[in-house]
Amino acid sequence: MKPLVPKVPFAGAVTVCFLDSPYINFSLTDMGNILGLPGLQQTLNTVLRNVVNQLVVLPNRLPVQLVPDIDIQRLKYPLPQGVLHINIISGRNLKAGDKNVIGHNTSDPYCVIRVGARTFTTSVVKETLEPVWNQHFESIVDICHGQSVTFEVYDKDQGNKDDYLGCTSIPVESVVSEGEIDTWSSLEGVKTGSLHIQLTWFRLSNHEVDFVQSMEQALQYRKASGRSMSSGFLYVVIEQANNLPPVKQLQEPSPFCNIHLGRDYQTNEVKEKTQNPVWNSVHHFLVSDPNVDILQLIIRDSRTETKLGSCNISLQTLLTQKNMSVTRPFTLQDTGRESSTIYMHLQLLALLPGQRQNPSGDDNTNIKRSLSLNKKSTDNSTPTEKPSESPTANPEMVVRNRFPDDNDIISSTESLPTTNFNNQSAQPIRQVMTSNSIQQISNSSLGRIRLTIQFHTLSNYLEVTVHECQHLSGVDKDGLSDPYVKLYLMDLHENVVSDSKKTKTVKDNLDPKYEESFQFPIEADHLPLTILRLDIKNHVGRFTRSGKTHFIGTLSINLIDSVNGKAETKWYDLASPIFRP
């Protein structure tokens, strides 16, 4: 109930929401039962759950205005409390969902992660009870108190309902309290199974100097794991637009806004037949690099899809503003009018690792206190639907602390006045990623590969020469391998952005020599945002009995150091294939 007002009812509005997605269960009667359509109940359940999530499950709220002159939109979408970094690494001893007449029983497991109404899904790992996902997700958290991260595991069945393999949950409050949690968490609702989970809390800061640290930690994480991590958060309020152009035959438009930042795309509601729409819509975005990210807005007419105007805003300009925030009109382009504007509030915040709130005392005591997870006895139950309650206890919990550092990484390239962070002194970086998975990514026992990498500045292409490998693992029955190297480029969001290339296959050899060169067309400006990925695989013939390609090792190289155009030849240690996204 807020804001408080000095008269009855003493609160300006009441906001109603579910912290987590509610458990919904119902049975069809009468005609629903008579029809007996396969999958009807499951489809209706999914549709109903999605509707409830979109209306009243965080981050969505239902505000009820009690007094006039209250900004309902700001109450509906307030500033969140932080960002949760979720790394679902692996599972073990999962329940077998597929019963095979010949061979072992197995599953094709995948994991669904829920934080309020936000849902993330891992890839499906075929035919295993010990899946390795090693996938990470980032979720904006609106309220820490009372909210949990829920992990549901399913067995993928083609054409049938996916089998339920158990679930577990961890309170967000416990992650905020400890800074970082690394745990094996037992699954509820089944007799066996557990998940290896890493959760890291990031708080929000409106101090521009904190972006030095947030950018440094994102870069360190990218170099260590080959995966991207957000460095900031953008809060956008689109208030109104003025003097939009009419559509054909001088009709008033019905405008709406498309908002783009990186891969994230959002839209607001349509305002019918007006050249001066008032939206007051609120939008949240995660920011990779404020020095290069651009917020793009396009206003269109809903009936004709005619473009009414656009606006591009470099986030770098916010770094020079007080509290990295600005509220003002922005001139619209492509309108045919000089006076068309859009009025917005923009606020940029840095993501900083949360600090442990109880640094003293015995670790086990802190764990039990912060993770008050009420595990229920479910040894004799094997439900087919998701249980409605209770997080699971974590007896094997390992908690690691995150400490913030002041570091320097930002460089300014905007023509407008900007803050130059390169002149600030940077303190030595402490280990940013403390989990075992990141510390052990570089593992020389898996072998190594010698490469020459050079960017040709005049022709705009990257040349990669694969010379040789040494000390590879033998995956065939005879202790040898038939290795080849697959190469491709990815962006910071782990999307493949090039055609894949591969070397020849060298038969029965753990020290293969290739001496093959490959070229990837790429612009110089894109190099700092691109990763070179190499997968060393064991060749399997088309008619081989197993039919499976075995990974021998993998390698991710950030190309930020290749901008200078110099050729660099060096040995690289291979990482375990379990860390391949």
TrEMBL record:
Which branch of life, at top level?
Eukaryota
> Which spans are transmembrane here?
none
Q: Give the UniProt record's GO annotations in the biological process aspect.
A: endoplasmic reticulum-plasma membrane tethering; lipid transport
Q: Topology in the membrane? A: Peripheral membrane protein; Multi-pass membrane protein
Start-end of Polar residues biased regions: 355-393
Positions of region (Disordered): 354-400
Write one Pfam family the protein is assigned to. C2
Please list which residues make up the signal peptide.
none
GO MF annotation terms? calcium ion binding; calcium-dependent phospholipid binding; phosphatidylcholine binding; phosphatidylethanolamine binding; phosphatidylinositol binding
Report domain C2 positions.
Answer: 58-185, 211-328, 445-572
Keywords from UniProt, A to Z, are: Calcium, Cell membrane, Endoplasmic reticulum, Lipid transport, Lipid-binding, Membrane, Metal-binding, Repeat, Transmembrane, Transmembrane helix, Transport
Q: Where in the cell is it found?
A: Cell membrane; Endoplasmic reticulum membrane
One annotated Gene Ontology cellular component of this protein: plasma membrane
| InterPro entries with a match to the protein in the record | C2_dom, C2_domain_sf, Ext_Synaptotagmin_C2A, Ext_Synaptotagmin_C2B, Extended_Synaptotagmin, Synaptotagmin_SMP
Q: Which family does it belong to?
A: Belongs to the extended synaptotagmin family.
UniProt name for this protein: C2 domain-containing protein
Q: Species name for this entry?
A: Schistosoma rodhaini
Specify the taxonomic lineage.
Answer: Eukaryota, Metazoa, Spiralia, Lophotrochozoa, Platyhelminthes
